[in-house]
Amino acid sequence: MRTLLTTLFAILALCLLPRISRAQDSTCAIRPRLLLDLPLIDAPYVWYAGQMAANKRMGLTDGSDATMNAGDPLRGYENPSMQQALAVTKDLHATNYYFTNKLWNGILEPTDRKRFLLNRLAANAQAGLVDYLLAYQLMVFGPAWMHEEFHRSGTTLRGIPTFNETYYRFGGGIASASVSHVSDADMVLFKQEAPNELVRSFASGIEGQYALLRNMQQDNFFQRTQYPSVAMNILLTKQAVGYVRQFLAPDYDQSIDTMNFYGEQMAERDYVGWDFTAWVYDLHRPDEPYADRGQHPFGEGIDRVIKRADLSPEEDAYLKRMGDLQYLNFLSPEMLGIHAIRLNANTRFSFAVRHILTSFGYDLGGDLLLDRNGRGWLLGIHTYHNRDHVFGGLELMRKGLHLGAAEVDLRGMLWMQPEHNGFYDQEGAIGGLVTVRTAFRLGNALKAYAEAEGKSDGWVMANPYLKSNISVRAGMALDIR
User: Fold this and answer.
1) Predicted local distance difference test score (pLDDT) of residue 286
2) Which residues contact 316 (CB under 8 A, 6 or more apart)?
3) pTM (2 decimals)?
4) Which residue in 363, 371, 373, 416 sits closest to 397, CA to CA?
5) Which helix (H) or strand (E) holds 353?
């Protein structure tokens, strides 16, 4: 599979590189643009986060809920929603790209095609170095932080207190990409009451990474931000692919022994350990009690982390296939820094292939982005796979509508998914999602916006709810040119 994907990626590069001069705007100019988005309110998630904060404040680990006080919703912002975490991380890296573009416009102004290519090579190299430092040195608010916040969204909806260890960068401990301070009692109840939500929470870390890359691709295509994000695209995808395939390493089980040795105290233990052996284990065993994992080898409580040796042959083969399919996420011209392919004076397009792990198996599909006469559209194709069945879905976005003084984005989805979001479901259920976002300018750069999103039962990338839900978000946005 890796050889096939390498060949396909090479063919993609050979086909698209000659089109670079047409893939960008009609000139070689780089026009720095920065889009910042801060969703201040995401309801009802803010109330779930407030309840989690109240339970943490009272030290509850028995499945009961503490009485919230006025400060708990504010304390809940320690665990932002998926959309909030996604926005913060994108803002951090978009700021890097904006100032990188301004810097290299001054050093190497792209007045012709050769200087344009040199400008882009230099800008992508520098931006990639800064991205690396933000991701692995700062950590907080970068992709590692966002990865853990996506995990925490699942536990927060259950009221389970958790802690994102990237916050140790502010002091008090050693910063790491881990979710800790979770009790075994809460994990037992989580598996017992909502096994499919548990499975989804294990896979949602890299779901966040792919959602980040998807959003940045949309900014580059529809808003022409020209972010030099090639290194981020490749490194985040490579990390996600490598993480799913990590269990194939010969020392994988030994690394779990080491993890357990340094997790003698329950509060120190990650709530899942390495994500994907646990994901495939519980995906295949929704009815197995969580406590059946056995006794922790070096301390009290349950041995949470799943070794490769704990997997059945079916589970092992399934996870290997998921690791192979992950390579499909490299298939996009955005990986080469090509933000759009121009067909003619009025039409531009781009695309991306996506393989995302879910509560029931995986979603395999992709996006087609189209700009025709300044009208932006996205068509998403989805195929939802559980053990025995494949279901389908369509997604349609209309970007940048102008209705009077309002700027409106519309999104609709229609799907057939496993009826209970489970791996063994034999029947499908029809569902869908509608999102309306409206923004109003408050000045040359500042906007206020409100967004309403309603969905039926079902899995949607970067939406934490598997059950039906109506969410309302509001915030501020900056558009700096």
Assistant:
1) 97
2) 308
3) 0.94
4) 371
5) strand 347-357
